[in-house]
Amino acid sequence: MCFRYYLIFIFIVSGPLYCYADKLPEEIDVEIFSGETIKKLNFTVTHGRYLVCDIEHNKLLELTPFSSITLERKGNEFIIIRNDTVLFAVGKITLQGAAFHNSFLVNPSHNDLHVRGYDGNLTVKIKNGRFSLINRAPFESYVAGTVQWESGFNKHDIFYQVQAIIIRTYALRNLNRHNHEGFHLCDKVHCQAYYGKSTDKSIIAAVDKCRGEVLTDINGNLLNTVYHANCGGHTLNSEDLWAEALPYLRAVKDEYCSGMPGARWETSISSNELRKFLQQRFHYNPGEDEWKGITGFRQASRKQFLDDNELIQIRHIREHFGLRSTYFSITLDEDGDTLQLEGKGYGHGVGLCQEGAMQRAKQGYSRKEILQLYYRNSTINYLETEFTW
Ligand SMILES: [Zn+2]
Ligand SMILES: [Zn+2]
C-alpha cells in the first residue's frame, strides 16, 4: 500500500505560536534525520554547485554535479574525505548552494536509513556524538516534500492542493517550535514528516498551483490545521481529545471515508494487561459490574470515556496499546482472557480526514469546500513571500 500514514499525532507546542502571519518565509531550516544516530555520511551534488564553507565562511572546497564527499565523525569534530583522502577536520560546515537551483543527496552509513534528496543548503555539525544536519530548504520545496510524505502518491490534484494548504499553514504556525535548538522544524511526525524533497511531478504542480495559500479565520489568524488518515465516519471536537476547544475544529459526520483502507481495524489485547494498565495509570480497579461494562464497551457514535464514571479517557487506552484510533468497541472472548477490539478510523480524529478529503476531491468538491467542511468557517488566504535579499 503506497498510502503513508505519517500523521500529526501530537498537539503539544513548546515555542510561541505564529498565530498571525502576513508573509511566508523564503526558506525554512529543518533538522533532517532528526533523532537518528549518524556517524558517517556521503553528500552528493545532484543539481547546481556547492561551496563547502567553514564556520568563518571560508571556502574549503567546491563541488560540481555528481561529485561527492564523505563526512565521518571523529570525537567532537568530523573529517571531510574526498577520493579516499582526508582533506579537513572541522567542527561545523555549511554546504552552500551556489547556482540558481541546487540539490543534493545524503546517504548515511546506517543499516536502517536510506538515501534522501533535498533542495537548498545543508549545515553539518556534531551534537551529542552524532551528526546534526539542518537543511535550509526553499519553503515551497519543504511543502511539496511534506505533501509527498504525508499523503503518498497517485492522489487527486485537488486533494494535493488541500494537503499543501494545511501543511503550509501548520509549518508556518509552528515555525518557532525548535527555535531554542537553532532550527524551525524537525522532520518527525509532530512537526510533519519531511523525508526529502518531492520526486512527483503532479505533487510539485499541485503545490505550485496553490503557492502561498494558507488557512486562516476571518481575522487572518492561522488555524491549527491538524489532520489524520481516516476519521471512521465522525471527526472529533478538539476538546474531546486535547484541552483546548477551537471553534473551527468541530465534530463532523463524514460518510466519504468509509470504504477506504483506514476505515476499519481489528486487534486483540489481554484483559490482564488492560486491568494492569487501569490499575497502574489510574489506580482504578473496576468492580464486577464495571468490568462487565468495559468488556462489553460499544461506540455506535464516538465516545470520550471508557467507563460510565468518566474516569478513563479512551485516548489513554489508544496511546498505551498503540491502537489505530479511539473509535472502537470491545468484546470479551469466551476464554475470558482476551479482549477483541473492533475499530473504525486511523489517527486522532481531529481536523481533516485525509481519506474523506481524497474521496471528496474525486467526487468534484473544490478545495475550499473540503477545507470548510473539516475546518469550520475557514478562509483561504494568499501570503506573499518575504525575500530576505
Ligand atoms: Zn519537531
Ligand atoms: Zn472521514
Can you walk me through this structure?
With 389 residues, the chain is an alpha+beta fold. Among the domains are: 40-128, no CATH class; 264-344, no CATH class. The protein is built from 9 helices and 22 strands. The strands form 6 sheets. A 7-stranded mixed beta sheet has the order 5-4-9-12-13-2-14. A 6-stranded antiparallel beta sheet has the order 8-7-6-3-10-11, with no helix packed on it. Helix 1 packs across helix 2. The radius of gyration is 24 Å and the shape is globular. The model is unreliable at 9-14 (pLDDT under 50). Bound molecules: zinc ion (2 copies).
What form results from the Cα inertia axes? globular
According to DSSP, the number of beta strands is 22
Cα radius of gyration in angstroms: 24 Å
Helix content: 10-25%
Largest sheet: 7 strands, mixed
Total DSSP helices: 9
Alpha carbon gap, first and last residue: 43 Å
Mean pLDDT: 94
Hetero ligands: zinc ion
Brief write-up:
With 389 residues, the protein is α+β, with helices and mostly antiparallel strands.
List keywords for this structure.
22 strands; 7-stranded mixed β-sheet; alpha+beta; 389 residues; binds zinc ion
Layout: helices, strands, pairs:
Elements (H helix, E strand, L loop, with lengths): L22 E3 L1 E6 L7 E8 L2 E4 L5 E5 L4 E7 L2 E6 L2 E6 L1 E6 L5 E6 L7 E4 L1 E7 L2 E9 H13 L5 H17 L11 E2 L14 H9 L3 E4 L10 E2 L9 H4 L22 E7 H12 L5 H8 L18 H8 L6 E5 L5 E7 L7 E2 H9 L4 H8 L4 E4 L1 E3 L3
Parallel strand pairs: 1-22, 2-14, 16-20
Antiparallel strand pairs: 2-13, 3-6, 3-10, 4-5, 4-9, 6-7, 7-8, 9-12, 10-11, 12-13, 15-21, 17-19, 18-19
The chain binds zinc ion (2 copies).
